[in-house]
Amino acid sequence: MSYIKLLRHYIAVFTVMIIASPANANDIDTTINNVVQPFTDAVSSFIFYSIHINGTDVPLIVCWLIFGACFFTIYLGFINIRGFKHAIELVSGKHTKKEVDGEISHFEALTAAVSGTVGIGNIAGVAITVSLGGPGAIFWLMFAGLIGMTTKFVECTLGVKYRQINDDGSVSGGPMYYLRSGLEKRGYTRLGKFLGSFYAVSIVIGCLGIGNMFQSNQAYVQLLQVTGGTDSFLIGKGWLVGLALAVFVALIIIGGIKSIARTTSKLVPFMVLLYIVGALIVIMMNAAELPRAISAIFVGAFTMEGVTGGVIGIMIIGFQRAAFSNEAGIGSAAIAHSAVQTNNPMTEGFVALLEPFIDTVVICSLTGLVLVTSFPTETLMNGPLSGIEMTSAAFENSISWSPLPLSFAALMFAFSTMLAWAYYGTKAWTYIFGESRGKEYTFCIIFCVFIIIGAAVKLDAILGFADALIFVMAIPNLLGLYIMAPEIKQDMKEYFLALGKAESEQN
């Protein structure tokens, strides 16, 4: 049976099972949530093990990410700032060369990876962050995005350097490959194999959370808002929305990274521009509130009031949401960047550092400004709304009809994120079970089924599950990056020497 026929058969059977169930749709959603919640609680408590500092619980995994981003930024001489102009030049095609290995261009690699980070979290996640940490959390979210650019630079450079070119010309790469081969090169063969396998297993499971269920869940919530809220005809039909999303995702991911990149290279610039323009319009309409909002963000970042743990509590909230948003230190984006057409891995490292800037410094910050200029701090932190509902209400306060285009943007964000994470999960799956089209198709089916499940469960189960399973991937990834840091520093020096020589010859 062909993959398409098998996928159609699987979805048809799943749909019939739901329709034929004697329970109504609300019971189905509740049942799924009750099954997922205990598992989510257990996983979250293990991964987010915390220590008590200054009256707040500080998750050690978040400290691991903060230290990593700070270390690489200083160790590599603030390459996130020094290399920004060169990154723009590479994406624009200034240094493009012919006859190189890979499947997609620098721009396509960037948009494919950005599609995996610019998701519902940029709309819903920022609102959740502000509701927990107040406006000050936005400052730390932006700061985390800036230093996270360096971490992304390191992991994506290594992703290309240690990628595997398959017999059919396709590319397989990412943390599982550079952990295995990079550490073996430095004499840590057993450790490399263990960390590579651990990462692959983690991302297979993790992609079903952040890149799948969380996205379909929040897309469904936004659709409820624009179709009547509690009176919507979609109440209790989350599985139906998920089914529709699953079908569209399946039609694209069966073509691999080339098909995904063709889609994201057109979709990502459009949806990002649409959202940025909409956010700027709302901010300009609330221009009178802008000084208060900026003051609240900067003063709130260092306040000792309103949040458990004061400054440390606010900082942790901002960093945790930034990591959820741009995934710097998680290593996932390196899988997409590994498919780029280049023979110099360092070039893709520069391109990759643009991701956290676009995702967190620009889009998340704009969302934060929309929220803070639209509502007073008390409403943001103690109001009845949360997540994407709060962001939607902020847009609606200024533009009455904005929930409709916002819903469209949310759906596009969710859709593009699922495309990227389906590819990440597929590459990890084939790393574990071997390269073959059949094994790729098997994972695609699993991924699409979880899209349906995600739209049917409640936010509390989804958010905890997604947060926990994305952060666990940072453990093996950053450990490997620390070990290979001298290698990256040396490669960077050689790259700049060669670049300077080439530019002097041209002049």
Polypeptide structure, described:
The protein is built from 24 helices and four strands. The chain has a two-stranded antiparallel sheet. A two-stranded antiparallel sheet has the order 3-4. 76% of the residues lie in helices and 2% in strands. It starts with a helix and ends with a helix. The chain has a single domain (3-499), classed as Amino acid/polyamine transporter I. It has 507 residues and is mainly alpha-helical.
What CATH architecture would you give?
Up-down Bundle
The biggest beta sheet is recorded as:
2 strands, antiparallel
- Counted beta strands: 4
Structural class of the helices, strands and pairings?
Answer: mainly alpha
| Helix/strand order | HHEEHHHHHHEEHHHHHHHHHHHHHHHH
Mean pLDDT: 79
The helicity comes to: over 70%
The CATH class name reads Mainly Alpha
Q: Spell out the CATH superfamily.
A: Amino acid/polyamine transporter I
Shape: globular
CATH topology (fold) name: Amino acid/polyamine transporter I
Treating each run of at least 4 consecutive H or I residues as one helix, how many helices? 24
Percent strand = under 5%
Strand order, largest beta sheet: 1-2
Number of domains: 1
Task: Chart the SSEs and their pairings.
Elements: H1 3-20, H2 25-47, E1 50-53, E2 56-59, H3 60-75, H4 79-82, H5 84-91, H6 106-117, H7 124-133, H8 136-161, E3 164-165, E4 171-172, H9 175-185, H10 189-206, H11 209-226, H12 238-253, H13 256-285, H14 290-300, H15 310-326, H16 333-337, H17 345-352, H18 354-374, H19 377-382, H20 387-398, H21 403-433, H22 437-456, H23 459-471, H24 474-506
Antiparallel strand pairs: 1-2, 3-4
Helix pairs in contact: 1-22, 2-23, 3-8, 3-15, 3-24, 5-17, 6-13, 6-18, 6-21, 7-15, 7-20, 8-9, 8-14, 8-15, 8-17, 8-18, 8-24, 9-10, 9-24, 10-21, 10-23, 11-20, 11-21, 11-22, 11-23, 12-21, 12-22, 13-18, 13-21, 18-20, 21-22
